[in-house]
Amino acid sequence: MKALVLGAAGLLGSELVKLLPDAVALTREQVPVTDLAALNGALPHYEANVVFNCAAYNAVDAAEGQQEAAYQVNAQGAFNVALACAEHNARLIHFSTNFVFSGAQEGAYVEKDEVGPLGVYGKSKLEGEKLVAMVAPRALIIRTAALFGGSAGRTRPSFPERILERAAAGERLRVVSDQTVNPTYAADLARAAIALASSDLDGVVHVVGGGCSAWDELARVTLAAFGVTAAIEPVPTSELAAPAPRPRNGCLASTRTQLLRPWPEALREWALTRGQSGTKKP
Ligand SMILES: NC(=O)c1ccc[n+]([C@@H]2O[C@H](COP(=O)([O-])OP(=O)(O)OC[C@H]3O[C@@H](n4cnc5c(N)ncnc54)[C@H](OP(=O)(O)O)[C@@H]3O)[C@@H](O)[C@H]2O)c1
To answer: Into how many domains does the chain fold?
Structure first.
């Protein structure tokens, strides 16, 4: 596999790069997905036959006021990457989100369930999915959820990292208890995405951690895994008044592939890895 990773400095991108030492890792500064000419130059230059598109505008709340910026990356950017992959005959592995669903359904969403995003982020990602499928029908679109992992000091910490930081700062930890997701270890997702890249699977597939959890439960398991004692106060969504609407039920399942290992097991492994890499426990 001659792989190219776009959005390589992000959480998932950096896990893919760790697992694919021969891959070409391109950050936003090197090749922005908004620049079709740059993509059309990079693919043949690096002779890539697989492209992992990890580039995304992921700021769910900020997207409500920055619709154009979100669509530029999540829709137009995805379209550009798909165009370049089609032009240069590369397999595209694109990533999307559980936020393409409304969350009104009872039970986890599978691939064929009806989409209905609530906010700008989910709508822009869904538009990206549609454009990718239109231009590159053999592309694989991996929907995932609630990523965690990576090493310390990233500029955009994931939810468990924010909980740890806030606990260390002695802040009150009021966490939403009426929205559910599949917490997903980025390293596990990266491994699965690499395996799927070599398979015949195309279209949409759900790849998430095994098990569904409310955010307050994820916060509690995180603190326990890192040996931190702090109280988590469960609160309803209505009390936190976040700018973006989010699915109440954000849980995914799959009829097309296996879910990853149970998320608490993956989270404990991540905590151990962080401990071993010299990260100070808060
Ligand atoms: N994180 C989650 O909980 C989650 C949940 C569901 C789905 N997903 C999806 O999973 C994928 C990977 O997410 P992630 O958590 O790894 O995201 P991330 O850590 O925010 O990384 C995204 C990367 O994309 C880069 N980027 C932004 N605009 C770009 C552009 N125009 N051109 C090229 N690169 C650009 C960012 O660079 P800068 O840092 O310079 O902005 C960043 O390095 C995304 O498709 C995301 O929508 C994530």
So the answer is: 1
Using only C-alpha atoms, the chain has a radius of gyration, in whole angstroms, of: 18
* Domain span including residue 57: 3-276
Which residue, judged by its Cα, is nearest atom 26 of ligand 1?
Answer: 55
Residues tagged active-site: 121
| Confidence band of 276 (pLDDT split at 50, 70, 90) | low
Compute the distance from residue 8 Cα to the ligand 1 centre, in Å.
9
pLDDT per position as a tens digit, 173-205: 999 999 999 999 999 999 999 999 999 999 999
Ligand 1 pocket, residue 210 CB under 6 Å = no
9 phi/psi in degrees, rounded to 5: -90, -5
- pLDDT per position as a tens digit, 82-138: 999 999 999 999 999 999 999 999 999 999 999 999 999 999 999 999 999 999 989
Q: For a pocket test of ligand 1, which of 27, 28, 99, 131 has the largest count of ligand atoms closer than 8 A to its C-beta?
A: 28
Q: Is 57 inside a domain boundary?
A: yes
Instruction: Say if 282 falls within a structural domain.
Output: no
CATH assignment of the domain containing 19: 3.40.50.720
| Six-digit token string for 60 | 């769910």
